Amino acid sequence: MSGGRFITLEGGEGSGKSTQARRLADLLRESGHDVVLTREPGGSPGAELARAALLSGAIRPYGVEAEAVMFAAARLDHVEHTIRPALMAGKWVICDRFTDSTRVYQGAVGQVPDALLRGLEHATAAHARPDLTLILDLSPDIGLARASARAQGAQADRFEGEGLAFHRAVRAAFLEIAQADPARCVVVDAQGNAETVAQRIRSAVLSRLPEARRARVPA
Ligand code: Z5A
Predict the structure, then answer these.
(1) How far apart are CA 178 and CA 185, in angstroms?
(2) d(CA 215, ligand 1 centre) in Å
(3) Is the pTM for the entire model greater than 0.85?
């Protein structure tokens, strides 16, 4: 794959991924890059349909393996219709959650067998490997408080409804991924206000991908 760069943001509930993904997209656009900001599950019309089914909990009764297959089906559509075309066109793609979320939620925490997850990841994302993954690390107590302040009484989704032990296991699993793949992953302290976290992300991106700084020369 040539041209663009692929950056993913990962982390637990309420760690600020969506906020920081938007801010990073703005920063890169200001530097003259063409940017596609997207998310998982979702990010393409077909995958957004799957998102609704997954987050409502409608797939949950079929078991964790069925959920893993559904996340993979959504990813296949997203990669083929949104991510790969953008990268091939030289754009920068910023994605709010990607394959590490499957490894964590379905794998480390959900206990779906590794062989199934590896097969699904190969089938869906072998041609869309992130150049950089920012893992936003935050105590789940703070993340869940942020998320519930935003929810203002709305019903929790399939994953928000899990207890603190679940969210602690999620945090630990993301940190393990970062430790195992330091060439791709950077752990970002997600405490502090959004501006402080954005500065940490800016430093990490410029250090790992110096070409982020370069403004496009007008034709
Ligand atoms: N999932 C999976 O199981 N397998 C997979 O393969 C994939 C996903 C791809 C998607 O949920 C769920 O799908 C996810 C894992 C599972 N579930 N969980 N948990 P989602 O997309 O609906 O939600 P999320 O990804 O967890 O994101 P979130 O709850 O929206 O959190 P966030 O994106 O990390 O944070 P935010 O939206 O930027 O901020 C949350 C609130 O905090 C908001 O009001 C902000 O204004 C506020 N905020 C943000 N930053 C700050 C700072 N720095 N200080 C104070 N307040 C802040």
Answers:
(1) 5
(2) 30
(3) yes
Give the span between the Cα atoms of 198 and 26, in whole angstroms.
11
Q: Which CATH number covers residue 124?
A: 3.40.50.300
Count up the domains in the chain and report the number.
1
Ligand 1, CB cutoff 6 Å, lining residues: 11, 13-19, 40-41, 55, 71, 97, 101-102, 105-106, 146-147, 150, 157, 159-160, 193-194, 197
| Element counts in the chain: helices (H) and strands (E) | 9, 5
Q: Is residue 219 part of a domain?
A: no
Smallest CA separation from ligand 1 atom 49, residue: 16
**Over the stretch 96-118, which tens digit does the pLDDT of each residue have?**
999 999 999 999 999 999 999 99
